[in-house]
TrEMBL record:
Gene behind this protein: cheB
Residues of the Response regulatory domain: 5-122
Post-translational events: Phosphorylated by CheA. Phosphorylation of the N-terminal regulatory domain activates the methylesterase activity.
Protein name as annotated: Protein-glutamate methylesterase/protein-glutamine glutaminase
BP GO terms, sorted: chemotaxis
Organism: Aquibium carbonis
One Pfam family it belongs to: Response_reg
Amino acid sequence: MKPVRVLIIDDSATMRRIIGFALASNPAIQVVGEAPDPTEAFKLVDSLDPDVITLDIEMPKMNGIDFLRRVMKHRPRPVIMVSTLTVNGAAVTIEALALGAFDCVAKPSLKDDRSFEDLIEKVIAAGAVRNRSSAALGRPAPTREPAAPSMPAPSMAAGPLERLIAIGASTGGVEALIAVLSEFPMDCPPTVVTQHMPANFTRSFAERLDRLCRPTVQEAEDRRPLQRGNIYIAPGGGRHMEVVRGAGSLETRLREGDTVSGHRPSVDVLMNSVAAAAGRDSVGIILTGMGRDGAQGLLKMRQNGARTIGQDEMSSLIYGMPRVAHEVGAVQKQLPLSRIAREIFTGARSTKEGTVSCHS
């Protein structure tokens, strides 16, 4: 395997050295260039043709968002946003992810070894995506598939029979969730979402989704009763989100705990709780992401009678989480991203448990 060739863009010489040192420590990565600003970076993209770009957001001459928009249009490739992860920077980083950035990571810190590991892991994953298909980069995931003229927009009148929807996603999930949730009707069943995302980002992400979706989208709070027409996003980076039976209704719980399947919040934790609290009255969906988080939780949901759906390989930015879920038998139907929302609201529950239907 050839090493992943990386271009580092950051206006701080110190940060370029820190990022370069972190990446060069792994033999699977080769740093081929550095740039202090987008103007110089454009020249290096043309001359070096890097596999992956790490990109700061706030830079002189042109900000990272404008650079990202241009490079995705003219020379698309995986771009990893390297951010200070402040509250003020969260909204713009979410915008970058929606424009097609591969992922975001915290700027490496000598005080936090994990920040180096995150950056290395995501650069290698991004390089694998570039090698697999450059054609899929440079545009957000498709947001909707035109419906047949005779098919009305989904609503509670058409389904689902279930009263709770659980969704898990990771790398590429920003675009995927926008695509799926923007198709939800205003009166959808309560929907809980765990998207792997750093702390301080999920509130901005929920606010962005709320502007794009018919239902109300909000960052989840502890002991919040789940209500129809609402979508709840697990807060990033600190606590697990679960669904439990409260006094007469289902409600969210946010709790401390060790990482599960490498994450906190974890999709497995959410879906295991939904399996116990709602069983066959729920639908589980696993979207694009790196790793295996969610596979066992989705399997538990299926074993308890829930309908389960997985995003297919062709429409996934990273076919990791959906692949593992499919391999362990957790997925009843594999579907392209553009068909998942319609399946949730118009798909019939299988009358023969154990039947697996795959679509491409």
